[in-house]
Specification:
The protein is α/β, with parallel strands linked by helices. Helix content is about 25%, strand content about 25%. The longest helix has 12 residues. It is globular, with a radius of gyration of 20 Å. The mean pLDDT is about 95.
């Protein structure tokens, strides 16, 4: 099969499009999926950094998201069959610990992610446990189904499980990339008042077209003041921050009393300053998400099982042009998910 691989630790800037061996069934509970689409995540840019890949094997196939057709299944597989079109829940775990028993695989000490400790979806075929395959919602293309897999369930976890977002509340979304566009779509769907920040006027215009009530283009040091101006000095109920760095303090300062900040990324830095007195004086809550649960993944599939709902896709590249797709993400250019077509 054809696949895109990182040749060695630290070699993420050099992606090789090459022939590799087809995966084979390893367990009776495994399936092989012929992939039709995969998407690009920030983790795909960082997984080759030596400090992040101690337990990875090289050459390594990146990619956590994917959608395609089951072509073979182990003898114990009952939930799907060859010929089924599926999208992929990318997180795997031991299945035996106290967290797995509670369907909290994201807390399992042996958890592993496609494209992380497991070979990923930048390929024509992938092997994975059958329980990680779910029917594609009616009407979604393979590209759209792949775009749903990781970003949207993670955002669902942040907005609804952790922040408990309610209709009529206000949300500040910091950044308008894959996480930001997913947060905008889910927040507006429940009737929240949404503010979006970006350094790109083009992204703010796209956000406005998709329901954002306010677009904010200002330096981080002025953000809280602008949010309070727009909210009558109150602040917002929820902040979604997948950026980190110098936006962290600005997000906390923009929260109303009793507000909730949720985070899942550190694109701009992982050691920001935090004014702790602001946190306890204003009764703020800070939560973080790395992976969603299966239940949250299924909630997102149900959300998209609706004829008028589609995930936001920025651009589609053929698999052989994965390097160009990475460049676009590195430049913080996309509004929505970048997709790789694995069958062209």
């Amino acid at each position: 099969m054809k696949a895109v691989r990182i040749p060695a630790p630290g070699g993420g800037e050099r992606l090789l499009y090459e022939d590799v061996d087809d995966p084979e069934l390893r367990l009776l509970s495994d399936v092989i999926v012929k992939l039709r689409a995969a998407t690009v995540n920030r983790s795909d840019l960082t997984n080759s950094v030596p400090s992040n890949c101690v337990r990875m094997s090289f050459p390594h196939i990146p990619g956590a998201d994917g959608a395609g057709v089951v072509i073979s299944a182990g003898a114990q597989v009952r939930n799907i069959k060859p010929g089924d079109a599926v999208c992929i829940y990318p997180l795997m775990a031991c299945g035996n610990c106290q967290f797995c028993a509670k369907q909290q695989e994201f807390r399992c000490g042996e958890r592993r992610l496609l494209g992380g400790r497991e070979q990923g979806t930048y390929a024509e075929y992938v092997r994975l446990p059958a329980i990680n395959c779910f029917p594609i919602p009616d009407g979604l293309s393979f590209e759209e189904a792949a775009a749903v897999s990781l970003a949207y369930p993670t955002v669902w976890r942040m907005l609804f499980t952790q922040a408990d977002l309610k209709p009529g509340e206000s949300v500040l979304i910091m950044g308008a990339g894959g996480i930001g566009s997913a947060a905008l779509q889910l927040a507006t769907a429940v009737g929240a008042r949404v503010f979006v920040t970006s350094r790109s006027e083009q992204k703010l215009a796209a956000a406005a077209e998709r329901g954002a009530h306010h677009g904010i283009h200002c330096p981080p040091q002025d953000l809280a003041q602008e949010v309070r101006r727009l909210t009558g000095r109150r602040g917002v109920d929820v902040v979604v921050n997948s950026i980190g760095g110098d936006t962290w303090s600005a997000g906390l300062a923009a929260l109303a009393r009793g507000g909730r900040l949720v985070t899942c990324g550190t694109v701009a830095g992982s050691n920001p300053k935090t004014e702790l007195r602001r946190v306890f004086w204003n009764h703020l809550t800070i939560s973080a998400a790395s992976f969603p649960t299966r239940q949250e993944f299924c909630s997102v599939l149900e959300f998209f099982n609706h004829p008028c709902r589609r995930p936001v896709i920025d651009r589609v590249f053929p698999l052989r042009e994965a390097g160009r797709a990475h460049q676009r993400l590195q430049q913080s250019a996309p509004f929505g998910k970048i997709v790789l077509r694995t069958d062209v």
